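re the bet — no i am not wrong, look at it urself. input seq straight from the record:
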Amino acid sequence: MIDTTQPIHDYFTDEEIRPVLEMSRRQFADARKQEYKIMDDRVQAALNNINDSDDYVKIVWRVQQENSQDKRYFDAEYLARGITNLKLFYSLEVIDGKNLHSLSKTLDVFWHAHQNFSFEYMRFCDKVFGPNQFLHHLPTDKRDRAVQEAMERRYDYTRAVLGKIYAVDETFWGSDIIICCSYDSATADGFVFWRPALMAIEPACDLYHDSLNNELKKKVNFVIDGFSALNG
């Protein structure tokens, strides 16, 4: 049968969504802390592709229709921040590609909406991360305490590196929000999405295979590659 559930507000039209995306585009462009300057054109190209993707119109109307009784998803500013924080999550795979990240249940609503459009999402991953670098969804198994604890360490790490490069929006990255999921990707070198990038190393968390753990534990702060500190 057809879903006849009435939303608490009218769904946004594509024209009404566009100002939301313009707001998000500005937020993302201004988000990175000024002490870092992008030194690699490939990194900048990937970040531009994240910010300028056409997929976000569909993500907005999808999250509205999936949450039609929640007033947050009819608030333009909240929607813009949700899209912006999804972009920040994607950007960590460019900037911090040798480490694993996790996100909250609040932000997963937006990531999940993107994955619903599987063809578009596949093209997005191919364009941003490179051929065959698909960012798979990995839900948390609540039956396994060890998995949940590992996911929590991964989430704490994600918040830490996000705060170094951008800022932590507590609405979407709060320490008290339920952790929802992470991702998986079987590549030849483990979880490596983008080699010429900034690699943050604290903490290693023992989440990786031994050789990568040992490599990470030799580092104490940042390995500067795709980014360079302006103040030296």
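see?? Residues 184-209, 215-232 have pLDDT under 50 and may be disordered. told u. also The chain has nine helices and seven strands. so pay up
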